[in-house]
Amino acid sequence: MTDIYSKCKSLQASWHFTKRIANSFLVQLTGKTVLITGCDTGFGNLLARRLDQLGLRVFAGCLTEAGVAELRQSCSERLQPIRMDVTSSDSVQDAFRVVREAVGSKGLHGLVNNAGISGVFGGTAEWATLEDYQAVLNVNLLGMIDVTKTFLPLLKKSRGRVVNVASAAGRMANPLGMPYTVSKYGVEAFSDCLRRAMRCFGVKVYIIEPGLFRTDMTNHDVILRRLDQTWQRQTPETKTEYGEEFLQAAKDDIIFGARFSQVPVAIVDAMEHALSATHPRSRYVVGWDARFITVPTSWLPTDLGDLIFRLVAPIHKPACCKGQQ
Q: What residue range is the signal peptide (predicted)?
């Protein structure tokens, strides 16, 4: 397993070298404006700092006042953090008015739809409620659609770029994170539709598909705590059907998977490339797990893909199914 991991890391390093060569062909970024959602932490926060250092004018959407204050204190005056809740159309409209007034007739060079949450993870199909699905969809998909539709007039003015953060989970379904997976399949579909529809307007759409990366959203302590809360609200019948061993196995999988989470700089590199390269890629599959396991498995016939998934990420059997084939 260690040898395979080392080879994957080596191949990923080679890809980064190729990407750096491609990065030498850039559009002129001076005076360009970019809006990024979800900048309190994670990919969005790192990208906002990166673009600020490159001299772009950045509007960094933050859910919390603490996120706004942190970026305002640590970045240049070019970066303007703004309160932005992507699940609130009123908040999105407020942000639109601020950006529209600032860019005027120049329009918006880039929109990075990065805001996202993981939701319930580590359980199984029956554990997530409709409210769990709604909470994740409101941020990851419906919020993205609302932001994109709202800012499209500014993107059309400059023949700008939309960068949507999907996931490798949007290419291969994972029953242990169903609300998140469903939302990211939706992001993939929306992005593909948007790319084809906006071609005549000169607006380009690029998709980022990360594997497992180390951010606040993937913090295993938070995921484990959320899993315990999900388990506690199950009925006595469901708890008996699945059993404590199933719950513990799910926790062990989360802890084990966290060991392979990657540093997020590669995602920020891909976002920067999508915003700045003369010839960006339509899709950026980032991370050794996404590039060499998840996405290739998604290309296989369904039954074969299911078999590979069971070998790579075996689904534990509930207590009531022990002994069955």
A: none
**Residue 313: per-residue pLDDT:** 77
Answer whether residue 172 is part of any domain. yes
**193 within domain boundaries:** yes
Is 180 considered catalytic here?
Answer: yes
Domain of 208, in residue numbers: 29-216+263-311
The catalytically annotated residue of 5, 133, 180, 242 is 180
Q: What is the CATH number of the domain that holds 280?
A: 3.40.50.720
| pLDDT higher than 60, residue 70 | yes
User: Containing H/E element for 91?
Assistant: helix 89-103
**Tokens found for residue 19:** 């990407």
Q: Region 198-211: what's the mean pLDDT?
A: 96
Q: Give exposure, 74-89, as e/b (b: 16+ Cβ within 10 Å).
A: ebeeebbbbebbbbee
* Structure tokens, 46: 């790192």
Residue 233 belongs to some domain of the structure: no
Within 10 A of 17 (CB to CB), how many other CB atoms are there? 9
> For residue 98, is it left (φ>0), alpha (ψ between -120 and 50) or beta?
alpha
Record the pTM. 0.87
Give dist(CA 274, CA 43) in Å, integer: 14
Q: Are 270 and 222 in contact (CB under 8 A)?
A: no
Which distant-in-sequence residues (6+ apart) come within 8 Å of 128 by Cβ? 119, 120, 178, 179, 230
Token duo for residue 241: 């059907």
State how far Cα 283 lies from the chain centre: 13
Sequence letter at residue 67: G
Q: Are 69 and 95 in contact (CB under 8 A)?
A: no
Across 13-22, 28-37, 79-88, 312-321, least confident range: 13-22
Q: How far apart are CA 180 and CA 186, in angstroms?
A: 10
Beta-carbon neighbour count of residue 201 at 10 Å?
13
The answer to whether the beta carbons of residues 284 and 208 sit under 8 Å apart is: yes
- How many CB atoms are located within 10 Å of the residue 314 CB? 10
